[in-house]
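Box 3.1 A note on notation
Throughout this textbook, protein chains are presented in two layers. The first layer is the amino acid sequence; the second is a token string describing backbone geometry. Keep the layers aligned when reading.
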Amino acid sequence: MANRVFISVQDGIEEPSWLPNVEPFVNHALSRLGYDKEELSILFCNDPFIQDLNKTYRGINNPTDVLSFENGDEYEDEEGSWICAGDIIISVETLPKNAEYFDVDVNSELKRLLVHGLLHLNGMDHGEEHIEKGVVPAGEMLVLQEKVLSELKDEKIIL
């Protein structure tokens, strides 16, 4: 299995020291989910940047933790056929706030946001259900998300 993961940081914000650890984790998660020959990008940004996207595309004028923009186009190159899965945007400012709210370390929360984004890029939706503190998810997407996170619990992005 092979996938292409492109990772970047919004211009003007400091690159996190853990950034090189994101791609290996995402590739493990993609493999665990059975996704193959996917190309996707992940952008780490600040709250004003993600708030602007959230307002523009969802009509919600607040920052959020993660946004996913599914593409689904296909193309071929010398290595075969690829699916342009899309883009994941994660706010590095909301990340520690979420970790504190959910009473988890920042590493665990980052992994949750990444897996959440990957599932959205592959057509899954959780409707009105969201991960809530102390509530076990019931819907297919969030149950799968928690299963994958459990399987990857020993993976470290933020050391």
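The beta strands are 4-9, 38-45, 66-77, 80-91. The longest strand covers residues 66-77.
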